[in-house]
Description:
Elements: H1 2-18, E1 23-24, E2 30-31, E3 33-38, E4 42-43, E5 46-47, E6 52-56, E7 64-69, H2 76-87, E8 92-97, E9 113-118, E10 122-128, E11 152-160, H3 164-174, E12 178-182, H4 192-198, E13 209-215, E14 221-227, H5 235-244, E15 248-251, E16 270-273, E17 275-278, E18 282-285, E19 293-296, E20 304-307, E21 320-325, H6 328-335, H7 357-360, E22 363-364
Parallel strand pairs: 15-16
Antiparallel strand pairs: 1-2, 3-6, 3-11, 4-5, 6-7, 8-9, 8-12, 9-10, 10-11, 13-14, 14-21, 15-19, 16-22, 17-18, 19-20, 20-21
Amino acid sequence: MLFRLSVYILLFFISFSEAVISCLNEDGQPVDWFIIYKLPIYKMEVKGSGVDYMYLDPSVMDFQMSKHTVNSSKGALGRTLTQLYSRYTVRFYMLYNDAPPELKYPSKYGHTKGVLMFDHSQGFWLTHSVPHFPPFPERNYSYPSTGKYYGQTLLCITYNYTQFPQISWQLAYLNPRMYNCSVPMAFRPDIAVMAQICDGKTPAIKNRRSLQKLKSVRGQTFFSFAKSHNYVDDIYTGWVAQALGTDLLVESWLHQAHRLPSNCSLPRHVMNIDRVCLPGPQMFRSYEDHSKWCVSYAFKDQWTCLGDLNRDSGQAGRGGGLICSQSSVMYKAFRQAMRQPTRAVRALAPPTAEKPAYLLLVLKS
């Protein structure tokens, strides 16, 4: 009897150690990608909890209100990061945030936030907009009280190990404020840039920006735009809209005094979103929302991007990036976030079949 019990215990630990590292959904099952839209505490003067969130993954046709809260370890975010807190001693991981938890804010780094964790099989890259998050691996999972006030977005994508050397190069351009990491020797030849960052060094880069095509573990194509501080321009206007060949509607934190106006000076235009309306309805203003995302104006293009940078003149000279996809699920969910008009501010162009009048009403110059 004792021998049989010992075998069961051994098998449990073997299966636990060999479990694949992945983004996990609301039920704790592996998923190709997920997006969390954490709702702001105030939505048009109506006070909420500050920890409620909406959830989206490839199996969900639109944002759904989660039964969990973002500070709970039982939701998708908590379940995914629990892999880090329970197994961080035996895998590669990196935590970076320009406003890290428990440390001073160093402005010399890129305006970028994320978590990577993987083994030689696969892992995840979580990019997000939450300052002071996540906690150090030695701590248990928690969500900062400072992250409750504004809306926030978090994008988790599962990749095969073969994609992480490319991601490693992207980090060189982002210049992340790494505050905790581990790079076992077996990984260092493949991800030399990440190893340098973990060692406190600044990797050399040849260009001012880098665009990489990535494939998720289930074959979804993503494009990673990463700019260095040497590329001094609004990433949305000067690069992403022109590279994707589409006009963009951009949601970013319009709370600061140096926010950029909508821009129609280049072949592809970039327009600020004034308000967001998620299912429920959950409506809030851009200055109540710290998230950073954009969608293509033209329905036929179906581009959705989530990332690091606000449309703010002070951030034009900082590293940061966006991850873009033509996922129809992503595009439909974010495009419909502008389905309810607010007051008319100024029409940027006459209404057309592709740019109807009701959509122009939610834009702010």
